[in-house]
Predict the 3D structure of the following.
Amino acid sequence: MAVAAAAGLLLLPGCGRQVHDRCLVDGKDRTTTVRDGKQASDMRVYTTCGTFTVTDNWVSGNRSADLYGSLREGRTYRFETTGYRSGLLSQFPTIVAAQEVGP
């Protein structure tokens, strides 16, 4: 029971907040899936710091489409993320803020 509660806390926005500095964006893609009978899309960003997702985040007021669209391949960023990488759950940290930095 305690393990399930702790795992649930990790999924809350704001938990596991990290900063990834000087991440070169290698690629981006957007996939569409059907979840619970509704169409959903996943936006992934591939970088030298790892793979991240971009999703709406009600805590930070993040507008995912705007953030995702502003990221450019071949440019270097400082990312603020929330969440953790879980291969078992197929989850990636989520970008909540991005700032372009020099090469």
User: Anything to note?
Assistant: Confidence is low (pLDDT under 50) at residues 1-14.
